[in-house]
Amino acid sequence: MAMKVALITGRLASSKAWEQAKLLEGIGYSVDVIAAPVDVALFIPPSRIADLVSGKNYDIVVVPGRWRHDTKALETKLGTRVVRGPTHIDDLYWVAKKLPIEQWDAELAAEELVVESNMRRIKEWYFEGSRKTPFFQSSFSNVKIPSVPPPIIPVAEVYPGDDVESKIMRVVELGYEALVLGYYEEQDLDTIERHVNIIEKLGFNGIIGVDGLTPATQGKLARGDSSVELYLSVNPETAWIYARDPEVWKDKLLVTLPFAPGHEIATKDIVKRLEDTVRVLEREGIHHTLIDVSLPPPGVSSILDKLSTLKTSVKLLGKPGFTGVSNIVELFDADSPGLIALMTALSIEAGSVMMLVTEESVKTRGVFNEALESSMLTSYAYANNRPPKDLGLNLLYLKRKRDPTLKPQGQRKTVGREKGFTSQPVGGWDPGGSVVITIDHANCSILYKWFDEEDWYEAGSWRDAAEHIYSTRRLTHLGHALYLGRELFKAELSIRLCRGYIQDEDFLQGKTLCCDTKHT
Q1: What is the pLDDT of residues 276-288, one digit of tens each?
Q2: Residue 299: CB partners within 8 Å, gap ≥ 6?
Q3: CA separation for the pair 164, 157 (Å, rounded)
Q4: Cα–Cα distance measured from residue 354 to residue 21, given in angstroms and rounded to the nearest whole number
Q5: pTM for the full predicted model
Q6: Residue 512 · residue 520 · CB < 8 Å
Q7: What is the distance between the terminal CA atoms of the chain, rounded to a whole angstrom?
Q8: What is d(CA 429, CA 493) in angstroms, rounded to the nearest whole number?
Q9: How far is CA 183 from CA 158, 187, 456, in A?
Q10: Can you say whether the dihedral through the CA atoms of 373, 379, 383, 389 is positive or negative?
Q11: Is 297 in contact with 327 (CB distance < 8 Å)?
């Protein structure tokens, strides 16, 4: 007998809900679409849902993924299981095919459960079953670096500072297997060892590396009692220094560059110089090397040239590649999840088994998480001969992205445009009350309050104000929400552009003020 499902929706999405319900019937569900007399289902109060479904003997009730109320409380009241569907009604059938409705959860939106399920399976493969051909067995941990990708291992580069512990803790909590201490200038051994001890005390048991130090300092570190085993960056001018002490370096992992840091050479010379460096080391029995062509700052053609050169070098020298993508992510004006995914795929194609990333600049915040998930997903895709696009949804959901290529179907109808501004929201007044808005130029803040209250609230941005107003749960009308979004953003623009702000009046008519430069 088919499972009987009550699908809760609002007026605006009811037609799409019926389309999805018909598709669900094709995979064994009996679905009733229950459209509450509210524009958007997020605003349906629990009491209204209880009235609509009580006594109808449903097996399960599906509320929207971002429904703002407590599903457990509703479940107790109904005596029927209540779960969250996907965030977007269009994803309902797709998610149900990936994960049956009976396995959906009361707390997480359904598509998040699909992502969790996929990631759990991929993580098991990535950390336990993917290292079948080790190239280098770590001396201080069980990390194995493969001779050819996949997998590719992301390496988190942390630049020590006042917050070194919090930076390292983030890497440890994410589950990285390789961490590099990057230095902008030369350091004494005591400082480096202190940083290494912090890493170990925080529970990191993967590969530890260093970058930005002279060969002399790296040599002293390697000869000592340090657990550092990954060393960046050996080049043709310094390779002989390492070759003098083969016993010190034979069990370490060295990353070779075709030139000294801060210098550039022609692309045509890269392979020859990498070969010279590797051969100098190999003559002395130092074989654990990775080759890095040192990708330049953005410039699509130069990046592709370097990756192509890396692929050639990997084949010619028989050494795994190492890709540093931090400067590309920092300087490209693009969303980092897509850029990280692209660079991961290109790095694997070029033969890299390790990929270096950092979060030192504001633009790269969150890259550690993105690089780790991208490495797992892309490695899994390549290992199973599947295009990475088949798993891209998991990565894109990190920032709640939607497919920008979808085109509206059917004819377009032009609607009337409002003639001037009005305090009455689209569709009429909100029974939940009205909001009064003004601004304080002196403190660069938006002031607002409910019409029936005395106290004012202060926010630094339209988003902060909107989030707070939304959290009060007084909004019951979609038109009111649209109106407030417009007015709050208008208020923020008035602060930024030093203009006067009057609620409900045309922004372009606002008076220009003489503001202090800090307010612009």
Answers
A1: 999 999 999 999 9
A2: none
A3: 12
A4: 46
A5: 0.63
A6: no
A7: 65
A8: 25
A9: 9, 8, 48
A10: positive
A11: yes
